[in-house]
Amino acid sequence: MTGHAWLLLVTLAVAIGVLVLLINSRLRFHPFVALMLVSVGVALVAGLSTEQIAESLEKGAGGILGDVGVTLAFGAMLGRLLANSGATERIARVIVDRAGVRSLPWYMAGAAFVIGIPMFFEIGLIVLLPLIFSVARRLQDSGQVKGSPYVYLATPTIAALCTLHGMVPPHPGPLIGVEGLHADLGTTILVGLICAVPTIILSGPVYGRWIAPRLAVNPDRELVAQFTGTATTNTTTETQADSAEPHGATASASPRPGGVPLGWALAAVLVPVVLMLLRTVAELALDESSPVRHVLTFTGEPVIAMFAGFLFALFALGYRSGQPPEKVRESLADSIKSVAGILLIIAGGGAFNQVLEDSGIGKAIESAASGAHLNLLLLGWLIALVLSFSTGSATVGIVAATGILGPMADHGGGVENSLLVVAIGAGSIGLNYVNHAGFWLVKESFGMTLGQATKSHTAIQTLVSVCGLLMALLLSLFV
Fold first, then answer.
1. Whole-number Å distance between alpha carbons of 37 and 17
2. Average pLDDT estimate for 294-323
3. Torsion on CA atoms 324, 316, 330, 305, rounded to nearest 10
4. Which of 36, 350, 359, 415 is the most exposed place for a label (fewest CB within 10 A)?
5. Distances from the Cα of 319 to the Cαs of 85, 265, 312, 316, in angstroms?
6. What is the pLDDT of residue 237?
7. What is the mean pLDDT of residues 360-384?
8. Computed from CA positions of residues 95, 199, 134, 79, in that sequence, does the dihedral angle turn out positive or negative?
9. pLDDT at residue 191 is higher than 70
């Protein structure tokens, strides 16, 4: 390696350190601001001209938002429609109502798996909290579960939601990886699901059965009453109904859960995923001149698939449920506000990635990694893990790891690229601790101490991270 290449590698290491410092110091920079500032600094040190710097920032931020931002916006609106209509709780209740005590964790994992396909981790957990609390309270009264029934049911729920959030498109992190690593979307969905199933089993029902007897977790009674709609003191009937709504949902726009037919609920969740998978099947099985292939390729584009899923949910779950159109529109507008921060982080990550590419840092890393014979999956996992843990943002971990490893990825879009997306996504999940919003959501929702939240939430997500990497490494042996 040349002296200039070493300078670029040192610049990258310093940039990552500065990025972590800016986000975690007393200044508490927003990740978007920190990413943009570090991007400018890296570009200056690497010798890019002022015109090149501005062009890189605009191209990187605009390009990633064009590829991922619109898809993410449709996903957020789809998730809000599913929550407000009661579709997600309808799916979950049908699954759980058929379960016995020993199989409840498996059914909860299944419910979270279905709900977690279109929803972010935090949103999916909030939607499922009423169900977790109501079922756990019944188990606690019956004394059929040793230890905390809340941990017994929350563990598989957390495992399924975070696995899908980090490893399976159409979530924003994996979508960023698909774009930056030139992976095929349908292949990544298939590979992600294959890796996700055993990961969820080990990190969810299996670990939950072991840890539940060891944690005495009991959420605040008033909070349980609010989520289950059983508050009886100092509240009116109207207040009880409002407080039973999941956080983030507009109470006045939400009908009573359970009124949505199961078929409509499942269809709304699966429409975008099925369209994306059909595209992959068509590209593998049909000739390039086939009209059917052209149609399925178009409808399977992420933005088109999510748009189709959103439109289906808008009419099937929104207007069809009898909600006033004004309330539906207000609710959808609120859903966009909830992902604005993520969109900014994605834009900053895109700018950072573009600067790394234009400055030649990516090629220097490729040269160093090739000389050291590092496994690309392990390298991507480690970079995402360290940055996610350090900055408190899984998105930052994914976009940085994607930008660093992008030049090393095969542009042919093979299975190896999809496995790298999964490995990076798995890395971004691990060591989810006090600087992550999800950690505090779980801790406060279940009334846990810091130690209890570490043994449950942090341990669950780290298990998911390690299992996801191992599954990716295992599959890589056959491709």
1. 13
2. 85
3. -160
4. 415
5. 10, 14, 10, 7
6. 36
7. 74
8. negative
9. yes
**Distance (Å, rounded) from C-alpha 54 to C-alpha 45?**
15
Dist CA 462 CA 31 (whole Å): 23
- Residue 260's closest CA among 127, 89, 31? 89
Average pLDDT of the chain, as a whole number: 79
For residue 455, give both structure tokens: 């043994």
Residue 161 in tokens: 């939601």
pLDDT > 80? residue 93: no
d(CA 234, CA 328): 31
The residue assigned the tokens 């209890």 is: 452
Average pLDDT over residues 442-449: 82
pLDDT at 252: 34
Q: Is the pLDDT of residue 195 over 90?
A: yes
Q: How far is CA 104 from CA 95, 98, 108, 109, 209, in A?
A: 9, 9, 6, 9, 11
pTM across the whole model: 0.66
Give which of 69, 177, 171, 72 is closest to 406, Cα–Cα: 177
Average pLDDT over residues 3-16: 80
Quick count: other Cβ atoms within 10 Å of Cβ 102?
11
DSSP code of residue 455: I
The pLDDT, as a whole number, for residue 256 is 42
Q: Which residue has the tokens 């590209």?
A: 283
What's the chain's Rg over C-alpha atoms?
Answer: 22
Assigned token pair, 219? 């959420």
Measure Cα distances from 404 to 35, 69, 179, 245, 352 in Å.
14, 21, 13, 42, 10
Residue 96: per-residue pLDDT: 66
Q: Is the dihedral of CA 443, 468, 211, 101 positive or negative?
A: positive
At 347, is the secondary structure helix, strand, or coil?
helix
Separation of alpha carbons 222 and 168, rounded Å: 35
- Give CA–CA dist 108/106, Å, rounded: 5
CA 261 – CA 431 distance, rounded (Å): 39
